[in-house]
Specification:
By secondary structure, the chain is of the alpha+beta class. The chain has one helix at 103-121, and strands at residues 18-22, 28-36, 40-44, 54-60, 67-77, 86-91.
Length: 124
């Protein structure tokens, strides 16, 4: 049986990108970004986390301003011999309230995704 792709947004790989995430118990971990979309991120996992854990994190991309984000773990890929352990985080909504990711972060993500889409269209 095959698995149907349910994501509706393009995901991009950004060479050299890192994620600094803060666990619910207060520790922090710097890991490699696996891929990103306008509404979620996947990164290598180095600690025990659970589905629905809320994380604050920083997206660190070479020669770019850090993007500060928060979101919930919606998927964990663990013990798959073909892939490193990873977590999928769905971003919290974007808005002006403290509960949300900032509009500035949304604009940074939007610009980053547009750059990646333009590279694909132009064949670079």
């Amino acid at each position: 049986m095959y698995q149907i792709e349910r994501r509706k947004t393009d995901r991009f790989i950004i060479p050299g990108a890192k994620v600094l995430y803060y666990t619910p118990n207060g520790s922090s971990n710097l890991v490699s970004l696996t891929d990103i979309s306008i509404n979620s991120i996947r990164f290598e996992l180095t600690t025990d986390l659970k589905i629905l854990d809320m994380l604050d994190f920083e997206l660190i991309i070479p020669s770019k301003e850090k993007i500060l984000l928060k979101g919930n773990i919606t998927g964990l890929m663990i013990n798959d011999p073909e892939y490193p352990d990873s977590a999928v985080i769905q971003f919290e909504p974007f808005g002006s309230d403290d509960r949300y990711n900032s509009i500035h972060s949304y604009n940074q993500l939007k610009e980053l995704i547009k750059e990646k889409q333009d590279l694909l269209v132009n064949g670079e």
